[in-house]
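thread: overnight batch results

M.L. [08:02]
morning all. the overnight job finished for the chain we discussed friday. pasting input first so we're all looking at the same thing
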Amino acid sequence: MPNNIASTIGNSAKTLADEVYQKIRDDIVHGHLTAGDKLKIEPLKKRYSVGASPLREALNRLSSDGFVFSKGQQGFNVSEMSLADLEDVTNVRILIENDALTQSILHGDDHWESNVVAAFHSLSKIENSENKSEPFLLEQRNYTFHNSLLSACNSKRINQFYKTLYDQHKRYRNLARGAKIEGRNLHEEHKALYHAALNRDIKLATEANEFHIRKTAEVVMLIKKEEWQN
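M.L. [08:03]
and the structure it wrote out:
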């Protein structure tokens, strides 16, 4: 087989594996595939319209990223959820995200600042709106804001690890979507983080970020604690 044809076939298989990896990951994060679900190859082939080879590659990557686990030769299952795992994901996310935030504040230029301002303005418009019935749009703008704060971090590995931790944490956060917690004001939490970052106050910014992330975890724990302890 000519090298250029072999290369094309290899790239095509890689693209399919990347696509199905992202689709399965999204389905896990959004709860369409739930904790403990058995991930059998044949049903997944039909569900995602993909062959066994790219599917297995995607599942192995998802296992490495902590979204699924394997039991020897018994195949893959969606990773379980628990109070202990939520606490672990929360702690590690804070460590990684605050490191990236510190680097961004130290190295961010005018372009970084303008991106943060634009992202916060966009998020504020929907947070301050009386109509908060668009959870997908709110989540999208929330991610864009947090990502903009970290965008001047020049570590590729930290950025990749952050995105994985964000989705692992988001998986838990989705369990509490729509829950109203008295006394919590998400917009004010974002506002405090925003002003501290633009003022280049690393201590205040990292404290505001940690407070924000931990409050989200506390909401999930409050809702799911009894169920997970039984």
